Inverse folding.
């Protein structure tokens, strides 16, 4: 085993394919494949499963990757201390549903790192993809929510994939509306109040199950419904079409401007927001720092942190 081989494994997971990793490493694909096979033979494990759809980490592979990251991180610290070497690029990858607080925490993490070089990834993506990212360790953390409706199904999927849900806080549902919407001045709104307005939600692609919806009360019928793929488009439609979306209520003017407001939704439902991790992996220091920032941001919004 060599440090270079460990770096190869980390790069393959980062890229999601051996072919792309080989391009970025400026080596041939057969050379990279052989390096992986040599490691698998040396440790008598299978690191990746291969299929026509690509590669994914095995259970042994997830554990191996976790140790590989720790080794590379420690070697980097060692060289900084005794060789006065410039720190290597900081690495961190997070997948999340479309939440302002997760972006706020990410901004603070990047600023705190104060690194000369870094390669951070923040994926605002679909629920299924978040689970898949953490399962295959493309991301160390995934941020999702649970409700009375989806909790049993989501927890079953997480357990099957050896993932763990860590609760952060409980949110009462709100709606985001344009400041020009007649409902924006209300102390609260009901589902009946919203009937004539377009309901905006994040589409979930081929896994468009009610259980994967990012919006609570996903089974409620809406006369007018629009699905979008990104937060900027959703906010533009909130303003342009006087629509609404159901959410946690956490809104950041610094990132989202002042044209959208949050109004409480009258319902007994709750959203349990948390992050998921791979039980076979050990979190990097950067991911631990991200969680710390996440908790601080959430507390600043007035929520009480659930101790894991």
């Amino acid at each position: 085993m060599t440090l270079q081989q460990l770096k190869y494994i980390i790069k393959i997971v980062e890229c999601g394919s051996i072919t792309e990793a080989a391009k970025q490493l400026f080596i041939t694909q057969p050379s990279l494949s052989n390096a992986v096979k040599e490691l698998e033979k040396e440790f008598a494990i299978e690191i990746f499963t291969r299929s026509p759809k690509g590669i994914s980490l095995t259970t042994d592979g997830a554990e191996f990757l976790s140790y590989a990251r720790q080794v590379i991180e420690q070697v980097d610290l060692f060289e900084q201390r005794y060789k006065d070497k410039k720190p290597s690029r900081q690495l961190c990858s997070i997948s999340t549903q479309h939440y302002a607080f997760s972006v706020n925490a990410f901004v603070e993490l990047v600023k705190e790192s104060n690194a000369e070089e870094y390669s951070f990834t923040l994926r605002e993506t679909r629920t299924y993809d978040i689970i898949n990212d953490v399962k295959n360790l493309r991301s160390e953390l995934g941020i999702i929510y649970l409700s009375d409706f989806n909790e049993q199904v989501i927890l079953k999927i997480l357990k099957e994939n050896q993932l763990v849900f860590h609760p952060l806080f409980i949110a009462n549902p709100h709606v985001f509306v344009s400041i020009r919407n007649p409902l924006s001045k209300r102390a609260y709104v009901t589902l009946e109040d919203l009937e004539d307005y377009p309901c905006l939600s994040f589409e979930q692609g081929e896994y468009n199950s009610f259980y994967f919806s990012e919006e609570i009360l996903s089974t409620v019928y809406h006369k007018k419904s629009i699905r979008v793929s990104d937060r900027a488009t959703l906010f533009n439609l909130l303003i342009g079409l006087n629509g609404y979306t159901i959410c946690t209520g956490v809104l950041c003017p610094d990132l989202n401007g002042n044209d959208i407001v949050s109004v409480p939704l009258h319902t007994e439902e709750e959203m349990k927001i948390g992050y998921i991790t791979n039980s076979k992996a050990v979190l990097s220091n950067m991911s631990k720092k991200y969680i710390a920032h996440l908790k601080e941001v959430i507390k600043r919004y007035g929520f009480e942190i659930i101790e894991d």
